[in-house]
Each structure stands twice: as structure tokens, then as C-alpha cells.
Amino acid sequence: MTDLEFNICVDDYSDGVYRFILKISKNKEDARDIVQTAFEKLWVNREKVETLKAKSYLFTVAYHLMIDQLRKETKIVMTDSFDENTQTVSQGSSELKQLLLQAINNLNPTQKSLILLKDYEGYSYQEIGEIMQLSESQVKVYLHRARLILKNKLTHLEKMSA
Amino acid sequence: MMINEDNYETYFMSYIDNELNAAERGAVEAFVSTDSKYAAALAVFEKTKLHTSTNEYMEMEDKIFLYRFPEMDAKLDTDFKKSLYKKEAPVRKALFTPNLMRASFAIAAMLIFFIGIQLFKKDTIIKDKTALAITNNSSTNPKQTENIILRSNALEVSVNKNNNSSAVLSSLPFNKKLNNTNNNLVKSATASQAAFEDQTIASNNTSTSIVATTEGLNQDSRENESQKNESQIRSNLMETMPNEEEKVVPVIPTTYKEIDTEKDDRTINIGMLEIDGSAFRGITRRFSALLKRNKIEKEK
């Protein structure tokens, strides 16, 4: 990977990695540090990492750094609102999105990561498995379980609001 | 592929995750169209999917720090880098630190002190030797009775002179210097003892002649029995005299001197040692001054 290719990766993926980490860690400083570290690692290993796999490499490194960070801070339980803590996040004004974000906040970090990697970044089960070091079937099962939780929550919240 | 009541949720979720191929997607859409409740269920699953929009897009701040430029990895060539290295001049360590100096002074002071003691010791022995020679010279007068007591670590001599002068000499392991003194003393004592033996032999001869005379008288006549008895008694007395003298144990009187502390030039006697008081006082004063100065320096 050349300098130019690396800088293109910064342009293309840094926001995505930052968003992914910020939505889970809900701490801008932590998210910035993790993105910084992930790109540092990519730079150090630029001879080994192919340009096409740079995005996956960045997300993998960032995800594991975030998990380590969460373990250190014992912030596994996330109960705060998505929007309140991530001021840059704007999910729009629709009530449905607010309810969805509220429901996602109640998921565990693994389920949340799966949802984010799938919906925001559009990774396949296989790619998510590589990033999170899970098998494809595990990704499928965990992700479906998370969606069922979200479905039930949304149904419940919709009934409550109605 | 059969989609039915039991597995349709799994297919729906895979459908919204875009994990189905075209045929599978067609099958799902066909299944949904069979009943409105399946269409409603698919719509609920669709709601669980996060949709990114322009409003939701977040940009990372300070992204500029992530970029890399060739200048950032510029490296100096090795030769130029070597020219930048500096060597610090080795710091010389002081050979004599203050503590070492103090210790050296203390050892030197102790050495001076002990050498001084040795010198005082030597002077005292020479004085004693002179005094002993004077005493031996004065022993020619038989009536004079003198007791000289010499004590030191290596030598003890007791000369007891009575009518028949006798000397008792006892010695312990001693050095060569003292050996000379001891030899002189032995010589003088041996001379005195020889004189004593001569006198004893003379008296024995006298008693023998007396005994012979007495025996002669016994043979000639017994009239002078009383005289014989008297002479026998005398000879017995003469024979017993040397034994009595040999058994005499010399009594050494101990004398004490009162030290006059008022005198400036007083001497201090420790056993055989005579130490000049003023010199000793000077040494002790200097030593105490040195210790005091060290203490003050430490306190500072």
C-alpha cells in the first residue's frame, strides 16, 4: 500500500470507523483515539495489508480496540440514550427512528456491533465474522436474535405510544 | 427451498440483510404475497433495519491527523546521523571524598597516638634499665637493703638483697630490645648469686672443720662433752642456715604515689608507662577538636 492509497483509505473509511465506534462507545474522545490507533496499525502494516482489504482491517482493529476499551471501563451495560450522548448523531425527526435507536441502546455491544456493521456499513455475514472473529453461522444467529429483540421492542413501544 | 410458517422469520431477516440470492428473494416475495399477515411481519422486520441518510452522516473531527505524507517518514542517512551523536566527557570521580578524608585523618591520628605510646614505653624501659644499673652498683654495701621492682609486659625482675644478696628473676616472652636489659639483669643477679654461693661454701667449710674438730675431741677425751654438744649444735645450726635462707620468699612492697594534678609538667603512670601529661593533653585536645569540627560540619 502506497502513501496515496493509504490517504484514500483515510478519506473513504475513517468516518465509517468513527461512526461505528462512536455509536457503541458513545464517547467521542475514545472513538477518535481508536480510529487513530487503527490507522496507525494500518500504516505500520501497510506492506502486508492489501488495499482492497484495508476497510475490513480497519474495522477489525477498531472493533477489538473498542471491546478492550469497554472492558477496561466496564461500560458493557449501556443504558443511555443514543442521541443524548452522541450529539453528532441525528437520526431524523421520525418517531420510528427514535424508538429504534432506543431499542438498539438496550442491546449488548456484540448485537449492537452486528446491527451497525450490517446496516450502516453493509458488510456481509462473512465479513462481519472476520471483523468480529465469529463464524458466519454465528453472525447469522446473533444478528437474527438481535433483530427479533428489536422487532419485539418496536412492537411493544408502538403499542405503548398508540 | 420451502418457506413455511415455521421458518419464514429467518427468511425475512436474511431478506432484509440482503443475504439471499435472486431465487431466494423471489421465493420470499412470493410467500409474502400469499397472506397479508406475512407482509405485515416483513414490514416490522424492515423497521428494525437502520437506514443511513445524509442527516445521519457523521464526520470525524481532526481527520487531518490521520493522513500520511512522504515528508513524515523522511529519514536521515546513517552517516549524517552518526555525525550528530555526541559523547559526553567522562566525569572524573574524586579519589578522596570528604568521608574518606575524615576516615584517613582519624586513622592517622590513631596511628600517631599509638606510635606516641610506643615511644613513651621505650623511654620508660631505658629509664628503668639505668635505675637498675645504679642499684646493682650500690649493692656493694652489704648493710644496705633495697627492693627494686621492675614490671612490664615482657619482663618482671625482683632483686632482693639481704646480708647475702639474692635475686629472683622471672621473665615472660619478650622482644629483643628488652632481652638486652634482661641479660644485664641476669648477669648482675648471677654475680650476686655467685658471691652468695662462695660465702655459703665458706660457711660450710667452716662447719665441716668445726665438726672435724669436735670428732677429734671425742676421740681424745670425753671430758669436753659439753663443748662437743655445743659445737654439734653450732654445726647443725650452720648446716641449716642456707636452707632457711633459700626458703625465704621475697616480699615486694607496693608503693603508691599521689599524682599532683596542679602541675603542668606532670607525668601519667599507667603500669610501666610514664606518659608526659602535657603532650598527652595536647593530643587529646587536638583529637577532640577534630571530632567537634567534624560534628559541626555534619550538622551544617
Keywords:
A: 162 residues, Butyryl-CoA Dehydrogenase, subunit A, domain 3, 0% strand, B: 300 residues, mainly alpha, 3 domains
Topology (SSEs and partners):
The complex is a heterodimer of chains A (162) and B (300).
Chain A: H1 3-25, H2 28-44, H3 54-73, H4 82-85, H5 95-105, H6 109-119, H7 125-132, H8 136-161
Chain B: H1 8-16, H2 22-32, H3 36-47, H4 78-84, H5 98-138, E1 147-151, E2 155-160, E3 166-171, H6 176-220, H7 225-246, E4 267-270, E5 273-276, H8 277-299
Antiparallel strand pairs in B: 1-2, 2-3, 4-5
Helix pairs in contact in B: 1-2, 1-3, 5-6, 6-7
Could you explain the architecture of this structure?
The complex is a heterodimer of chains A (162) and B (300). Chain A is mainly α and 162 residues long. Chain A has helices spanning 3-25, 28-44, 54-73, 82-85, 95-105, 109-119, 125-132, 136-161. Chain A has one domain (3-161): Butyryl-CoA Dehydrogenase, subunit A, domain 3 (Up-down Bundle). Chain B folds into three domains: 8-49, no CATH class; 102-130 and 265-300; 139-251. Chain B is elongated, with a radius of gyration of 61 Å. Chain B has helices at 8-16, 22-32, 36-47, 78-84, 98-138, 176-220, 225-246, 277-299; strands at residues 147-151, 155-160, 166-171, 267-270, 273-276. Helices cover 57% and strands 8% of the residues of chain B. Chain B starts with 7 loop residues before the first helix and ends with a helix. In chain B, a hairpin with a 3-residue loop joins β1 and β2. Chain A binds chain B through residues 3, 6-7, 10, 14-15, 18-19, 22, 28, 31-32, 35-36, 39, 43, 86, 88-92, 96, 100, 104, 115-116, 118-120, 122, 124-125, 140, 143-144, 147-148, 150-151, 154-155, and chain B through 9-10, 13-14, 16-19, 44-45, 47-53, 55-63, 65-70.
